[in-house]
Write a structure and sequence with these properties.
The chain is mostly helical. The protein has one domain. It has 2 helices and no strands. The chain has helices at about 1-10, 10-145. The longest helix is centred in the middle third of the chain and has 136 residues, at about 10-145. The radius of gyration is 61 Å and the shape is rod-shaped. The termini are far apart.
Length: about 150
């Protein structure tokens, strides 16, 4: 075997030294370059995984928030409808009350006007009777004076 190596010009001592140098270089590269690069890649992989988890969590929270918002909007709409219907009912009740009060006031005014008209009529009739009585008395006096 040493003759074969000699024919090809390979010195076993140089081959051994080159193998040791290659091993040392491999160990140095693994320690100084491969290890830090792998740590950096692992750190990035963890950050990406954390980002994915955070995105999923944010998506879930967004969905929950949207569902909550929809519920709140539905409740707010329902409350607004209830307030609106209550306001309409109150308005209709107040309107009926005001109409009743107005009709009562109108009836009262009509009765007062009728009473006043009756009083004026009675007063006018009484005054007319007095005037007629005065005219009769004056007429009688004139007739009596003419006969004298």
């Amino acid at each position: 075997m040493s003759q074969v190596l000699g024919i090809f010009g390979v010195d076993w001592r140089l081959l051994l030294i080159n193998a040791i140098n290659f091993g040392l270089l491999l160990i140095a590269l693994r320690y100084f370059i491969y290890g830090p690069i792998m740590k950096m890649l692992e750190g990035r992989r963890e950050k990406v995984a954390e980002g994915v988890k955070a995105a999923e969590l944010a998506g879930k929270k967004l969905a929950e928030t949207e569902a909550s918002r929809a519920g709140v909007l539905a409740r707010a709409g329902k409350e607004a409808d209830e307030l609106l219907s209550h306001g309409r009912e109150s308005g209709l009740a107040k309107e009926k009350e005001l109409i009743a009060e107005g009709e009562a006031a109108a009836d009262s005014l009509i009765k007062d006007a009728e009473n006043q008209a009756k009083e004026i009529k009675d007063k006018a009739i009484a005054e007319s009777k007095e005037e007629v009585a005065k005219l009769i008395v004056l007429g009688m006096e004139k007739i009596i004076k003419e006969r004298k």
